[in-house]
Amino acid sequence: MNVKSVLRAVALTVIGLFFLFPLFWVVLMSFMSNADILRNPPSPFFSPTLHNYIALVSGELHTNVGTQTVNYMLNLFNSTVLSAFSVILSLILGVPAAYAFARYKFRLGEDMAFTLLSFRFAPPLLVLLPLLMIFQSIGLYDTYFGLVWVYQLITLPLVLWIVRGYFEDVSEDIELAYRLDGHSWLSTFFHISIPLAKPGIAAAALLSFIFAWNNFIFALILGSSGVQPVTVGAFAFVTASAIEYGQVAAALVFSIMPTLVLATFTQRYLVEGLSLGAIKG
Amino acid sequence: MSTSGVASISARPVVRRRHPFLARALPYLLSMPALLTCIGIMVPFAMALWYSLERYNLAFPTTRGFIWFGNYVSLFKDATFWNTVVVSMTYTVLTVGLELLLGLGIALLLWRRSLVTNVLSVALMLPLMVAPAIASMMWKLMTNANFGILSYFVSLVGVHDFKWASAPQSAMFTVVMVDMWVYTPFITILLLAGLRGLPRQPFEAAELDGVPGSFVFFRIMLPMLLPYILTAGLFRMLDSIQQFDIIYSMTQGGPGDTLMDFQVQAYTQAFIFTNIGRASAILMVLWLITYVLSNVFVKNWLRLRERARGGV
Amino acid sequence: MNDKTTNLFSDYVAGRMTRRELVTRAGKLGLGAAAAGMMLNQAMTQAMAASFDWQKYKGKAIKLLLNKHPYTDAMLVNIENFKKLTGLDVTYDVFPEDVYFDKVTTTLSSKSTAYDAFMTGAYQTWQYGPAGWLADLNEFIKDPAATAPDWNVADILPGLLHSDSWSGVPGEPLGGPNAKQWALPWGFEANSISYNKRMFAEAKIDPPKNLPDLIEKAVKLQTDVKGIYGIGVRGSRSWATIHPGYLSGLVSYGGADFTLEGGKLKSAVNSPQCKAFTKLWVDMIQKAGPKNWTNYTWYEVGNDLGAGASAMIFDADILGFFQQEGTKEAGNIGYQAFAANPDKKDPTPNVWIWSLAINAASANKGAAWLLLQWAVAAQQCQFGATKAKLIDPVRQSAWDDAEFKTRLKEKYAGYLEQYTASAPGSKIYFTPQPLFFNLTTEWAASLQKMYAKEIGVDEGLDKLAESVMGQLKDAGIVQ
């Protein structure tokens, strides 16, 4: 083994530790009782318990001041629905727009692109209170539709700029060749352009999903218990008598699952270099 | 032989356009829906702008009134505001800079495809999937002096009483670390996708010619990656300058005023002090700074694209 | 539920049976404690129905906005009884405390009709009241048609009722002649010492009598007992750091947040008494406080006591109460009333009062009042004190209740004595004014700076006074 690969291995190990150890510890905590977690000094030796997970799934939280109900399963469902629909909507709106900005130099093109990006600049707290009043008056408070719409501010710019970069990289020649063969623009778009940009679209979709999933303040203010996602729901374990760290840990583990599934699925697309090599080489 | 060379010599083949009007309208048709969906945000934005020009405190409904730039003037005269600017800028520069470096490094390490790198690619995304507010809660526990596992490890190497986020000197360090933990994977994913989309030809040619690694990296790879680096940097900059969840969850902006960045300051003004006018003014300033900075990023990004299109 | 059981409880409520008999016979009928509690409450509720027209708003619906708290749990356990009593449809949303007040502020400020009644603290009413978001409860309390004759408002500890009422004019005291009753006290907390008896026994010392004594003993405890720190107090950058132990001790030393000069408010945070006390306070934390003090909230303070990481806390009495069960140090917690000033004998605990209020924009205020009435009725208070964790109860009758006294004596030795000693001096010592949160948040930030030695105590308090007066001027409260 030469120096280079040793260094590589060391680097990968250190990086792996930094990013993964906290999660490992959280998973451990999810199997501990609160008394075990709050031990000085902390110890990896403990008697494991499924009590935290059971509390989440069954919806009952037993603390030392009684039993409280938690709706974490509903929160998970809400998060999934909100994030999924936000991403789908962003892809439908964003991919064609990204294509337009990448391929065509049209008047106002750059201005429009920048405007779409600028929606991301609006600090959430700035527009939150006015949005609340507007939503209440048009009846969008505490609805999936309302939140999915607001989430576009987060996901659409991201999809747009990532996918645009990808389209810019994809050479036009294959598309041109396909069209010369007699196919319509629409057919070209769906059969050539989109598949070629798959890694970019996959990355954009995954990242948008994550950002929508992790959003906190919009869901808190513009929604109520009907659409409460996991980010707000996790604070339910911060009870008056104690912070139930065990349950927060278990909740965290649950909340990562859907995103992890999506990530594993899109990993395939991120990895494919596809025919890019064929064109440019 | 590269086909692009041939194409640039001969005239472009003409594609028959059956509907010339439709062809010209196409870009607008493609991008309008996105624009229309988001344009609605202008309304609350305009309302917020209006608030920033008012003396508007929820607890004093009778004093509500238009004061033009009164809020802004009092902001610029206030030392705590300038502290906010410094805190936000420091945080942004530290997080974006460090994360870009680290993210690029990790992407390079994961570039070569093997079982280890494939597994790590997915595994390293996990921190990104944790909501920042919850991540902060967990890091707060891990750095707790009594029960925190990190405090314990650090004490094993002889550093007792490291204050993590509870002392002014180490608070910034702690929250930047949490931010890096959550968001470096974001940069890694983007750069990795970019790396894997790079054409292989230049690198194969360089290897054949015996070009040294550092040259390949700085003169070939980095310029090709620059657009992706800019995109990643742009979005991270937007997030960091607006950072709220991590800091508020950890210290509510303390200790003292050490971590009072824009949104934490605005939140305190709006929700705790019910001073909507002042909070809106603070956030309008933030919006303006963000606008200017983003302009810089985007202009550079476009310049790079132009260069890439024009030459080879 | 069969007739035999129903009659059993009705008999008890009607006074035809003693409590002991009830318990024995309920046990014989196979009723567990929880079921018995519920049914007893049901019978009591039915008895209430006999004296007043609770069904006035039958068929209407009300929605509650509640904080995730044991008080909420105590109410929700019996909410079905309330629904039956009044024929109202009751729905509720419960939010965790960290985000609860955000929700309340945004809801009220947008004049939303989504919620009719909600939980609040007294301090918040100093913002919500002047803003016009709260209904004045006096119009219900004083109206014989709206309030049951046997509801007995006098039974509610007068200090608490007054503390929830204010005229809204800065400079006028709480509970004054023009005061509007903005909220109804529901449960409260007095600030005192809760300590670890085992650790004190190990160090062979008694609970502290005053602040200098506390500092000395806290230092001794952390030397004698391994792996702990002496005294737990809150320190986060928030108003919540000022109102428990800090202000209680400050008042004992003769300090105050404001004084009145010619009827106008003047900041008194930089008075010599405040400075002397604050110096001791910061010294105490530096010598014997928690290492991450600036991150310490209610949760960390309580957790540490319950997990055996601290020897004592100077905070809400119920925080110590909660640590007596289900924690590592369960059973080891003792309680002591506390007067910080060595020259003063009587404790001066500042209080926090969780209260219920009615949204001014609500379309069902009358119906909402029925809920408030029921939640703070003698029966509910007694239930909460004996079967749930609605401590400290706001009614004198609950404190006089034999079952409650027994509960305290058996599991929470010393708590009742702590309360009796704390009670006379327990009230809100803050001066009501709408910039309460501005003052206290900045005060907390200032304390953090003093602790980190970024600024001296004298200078810090002077700056704070200056800043507060400036803000009051800007708001038009002082000239």
Structural account:
The complex is a heterotrimer of chains A (281), B (312) and C (479). With 281 residues, chain A is mainly α. Chain A is built from 14 helices and two strands; from the N terminus they run H-H-H-E-E-H-H-H-H-H-H-H-H-H-H-H. In chain A, a hairpin with a 2-residue loop joins strand 1 and strand 2 (66-69). The radius of gyration of chain A is 23 Å and the shape is globular. The two termini of chain A are 33 Å apart. The longest helix of chain B is centred in the last third of the chain and has 35 residues, at 276-310. The radius of gyration of chain B is 25 Å and the shape is flat. Chain B starts with a helix and ends with a helix. Chain C is of the alpha/beta class. Helices cover 47% and strands 14% of the residues of chain C. In chain C, 58% of the residues are buried.
Layout of helices and strands:
The complex is a heterotrimer of chains A (281), B (312) and C (479).
Chain A: H1 3-30, H2 34-37, H3 51-58, E1 60-63, E2 66-69, H4 72-103, H5 109-118, H6 124-138, H7 144-169, H8 173-180, H9 185-196, H10 198-214, H11 217-222, H12 230-233, H13 245-271, H14 276-280
Antiparallel strand pairs in A: 1-2
Helix pairs in contact in A: 1-13, 3-13, 4-7, 4-10, 5-7, 7-10, 8-9, 10-13
Chain B: H1 3-9, H2 20-39, H3 42-52, E1 54-55, E2 65-66, H4 70-76, H5 79-111, H6 115-123, H7 132-142, H8 149-156, H9 168-196, H10 201-209, H11 213-241, H12 245-251, H13 262-272, H14 276-310
Antiparallel strand pairs in B: 1-2
Helix pairs in contact in B: 3-14, 5-9, 5-11, 7-9, 7-12, 9-11, 11-14, 13-14
Chain C: H1 3-13, H2 19-28, H3 33-49, E1 61-67, H4 70-77, H5 79-86, E2 89-95, H6 97-109, E3 117-121, H7 122-128, H8 138-141, H9 158-163, E4 165-166, E5 180-181, E6 184-196, H10 197-203, H11 211-224, E7 229-232, H12 245-252, E8 258-261, E9 264-267, H13 272-288, H14 298-307, E10 310-316, H15 317-322, E11 333-336, E12 351-358, H16 365-375, H17 378-386, H18 396-400, H19 402-411, H20 415-422, H21 436-451, H22 457-474
Parallel strand pairs in C: 1-2, 1-3, 7-10
Antiparallel strand pairs in C: 3-12, 4-5, 6-10, 6-11, 6-12, 8-9
Helix pairs in contact in C: 1-2, 1-3, 11-13, 21-22
- Chain pair sharing the greatest interface: A-B, 106 and 100 residues
Largest sheet of chain C: 8 strands, mixed
Over all CA atoms, what is the radius of gyration of chain C?
Answer: 23 Å
Helix/strand-derived class of chain C?
alpha/beta
Poorly predicted spans of chain C:
none
Rg calculated over all Cα atoms of chain B: 25 Å
Strand-residue proportion of chain B: under 5%
Residue share in helices of chain C? 40-55%
Q: What distance lies between the first and last C-alpha atoms of chain C, to the nearest angstrom? A: 66 Å
Count the beta strands of chain C. Answer: 12
Overall 3D form of chain C: globular
Structural class of chain B: mainly alpha
Mean pLDDT of chain B: 85
Low-confidence stretches of chain B: 1-10
Give the termini separation of chain B.
Answer: 13 Å
